[in-house]
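Reading is simple: each integer encodes one residue's backbone shape. An example follows:

___
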Amino acid sequence: MKRPAKQTKQHRQQKHRKPTAKPTRTLLFCKPYKVMCSFTDTEGRATVGDYVDVPNVYAAGRLDYDSEGLLLLTSDGNLAHRITHPRHKLPKQYLAQVERIPTEEALTKFRHGLLIKGVMTRPAQVELLPTEPDIFPRSEPIRYRKTVPTAWLKITLTEGKKRQVRRMTAAIGHPTLRLIRSAIGPLRLGTMHPGEWRELTPQELKNLTS
């Protein structure tokens, strides 16, 4: 019967050494209008995968098919959890073009929270912009009605229920015509255009997780 080979000190150190963590990647993507947040779609619709050829990254949170703007893609599960879990209350900023001009009374209701399908939303920030924001044009123009004016709102939420911004603006009588996510926490969309993406810098990652 053979005795097991005697382990050297070097072998023992290698045995107990922690495996090296795989490097992660996090991307900032400007999602175009009518693009799915997934990398595949059974209905044949356009997806993130048509624009981003990076393996093992996934959307951290959702952005509706008919919404545009900032979407984070990451291979870091812990970071994705921090971005999406409501416990962290990471603010997300949107630009919303709505029908008609909201009154201050309507905006006050929005700020205090609204009852949507039996659930109260958290208090939110909303600002009526004096002019149209300097933003890229949409691939398909919004419907235009000569007798119905539109306005732009800057909205900041700390939660992300399904189609929440659209449901909240509708609840105060101002349906959303166009919706663009412009910021997640300290990250800003800036001058990026639909379909463009870039890696987050080390400083941006630090700011996002601090």
Remarks:
- The helical segments are 9-16, 77-84, 104-112, 164-171, 202-209.
- The longest strand covers residues 176-184.
- The chain has one domain: 26-203.
- The CA atoms of residues 86 and 159 lie 6 Å apart.
